[in-house]
Amino acid sequence: MTGADIKELVVLSGKGGTGKTSIVGSFAELAKDAVFCDCDVDAANLGLLLRPETKEAVEFRVSSKANIDGDVCTGCGECEEICRFGAIRSRKTSANGNVEETGDAQETANGNTEEIADMSGKEALNVTRKGSRANEISPDQDRRPKFEVDLMSCEGCSLCERICPVNAITMKEVVSGHWYVSDSRHGPLIHARLEPGEENSGRLVAAVRQKAREIAQQQGKSLIITDGPPGIGCPVIASLSGADVALIVTEPTLSGIHDLERVVQVCKHFDVPVMVCINRWDINPGNTSVIQKTSEEAGHKVIGLVPYDDTVPKAMVNGLAVTAYDCPAGNSIKGIWQKIEREMQTQARK
Ligand code: SF4
Ligand code: SF4
After folding, report:
1. Would you give the end-to-end CA distance of the chain in angstroms?
2. So what's the architecture of 65-174 in CATH?
């Protein structure tokens, strides 16, 4: 199987909550020869339906954050002032009073522990200066504010590194997330998890897709089914570029119509053919007609309408695809899958 023989279907929604992952989970049950790829790296949940067993976990390192060397820092406070993300904070002021210094003092004071424990931080510090360490630490050093970096807030701009007068700050690479290769009951699943506050989700998506393609090639799979992220941002672009077909799952609401238009524009930009599926079409037949009409005018196939069906939440609660049930939504998705298979065969012949 060469890279060119492998086709990739990416399922997008333009917005969250349209039922995209439920539909991809159903495709996973119906597909015979596919690798699955969850590109929603901020909130991956395809695994809830596929129940993966992780075989390989790989650290994803792309960003660097500020790190302060406490032995070199003079406590001038310039970094705290200059960081516009508020990521550098004085330990002395970030805790309630002088907690750290007081704690340190309690360890080294001679006797007086109980007395110190009842005092405020400042009082306790004064007492300990009279204790055993009073001759070792000068008052200036003792009061020296120490600074720390809140890694969640640090944007890695490195400005603090450049302005620190004593070069106490260096930028250190951090783990931004992980990507995983798993086996699932329907085939290999490549998925990922971005750490809270981390950016570069587009690069993590690219890494996940790259691995999915490698696995497809190694295992002779002819199809990659990608559960794309919601929205139209960088991770969507990373999951879409180079795909063979995009299926957009929408719903007949005003926001659904609006976000469909936006994600269609992104697909057009990357020259990826679009198919549309309207989920819960019967909650607003008027809006469904609008979507059908505008899609047909723009040359996009509406390949299926999935009705509202109480079986869908029931299936989710049981961790099953809705196609595991004989129900209107499940039967509709089976029909959509047949059309997709035909479309992918057409693409393969091109
Ligand atoms: S890290 Fe540098 S800039 Fe920040 S307080 Fe310490 S010496 Fe000053
Ligand atoms: S690298 Fe930038 S964002 Fe991070 S602590 Fe330094 S100045 Fe703030």
Report:
1. 16
2. 2-Layer Sandwich (3.30)
Q: What angle do CA 98, 104, 108 make, to 5 degrees?
A: 135
For ligand 1, mutation pick of 92, 94, 147 (most atoms within 8 Å of CB): 147
**CA atoms lying within 13 Å on the CB side of residue 258:** 6
What residues are paired with 304 via a beta bridge? Answer: 277
pTM: 0.76
Q: Is 256 helix (H, G, I), strand (E, B) or coil?
A: helix
Tokens of 339: 């059309």
Question: What is the CATH code of the structural domain delimited by 3-62+180-349?
Answer: 3.40.50.300
Q: Whose CA is nearest to atom 4 of ligand 2?
A: 154
The protein residue whose alpha carbon is closest to atom 7 in ligand 1 is 73
Atom of ligand 1 nearest to the CA of 147: 5
Tens of pLDDT, residues 259-290? 899 999 999 999 999 999 999 999 999 999 99
Provide the residue count of the chain: 350
Residue nearest to atom 8 of ligand 1 (CA): 76
- Cα-to-centroid distance, 14 and ligand 2 (Å): 33
Extents of the domains making up the chain = 3-62+180-349, 65-174
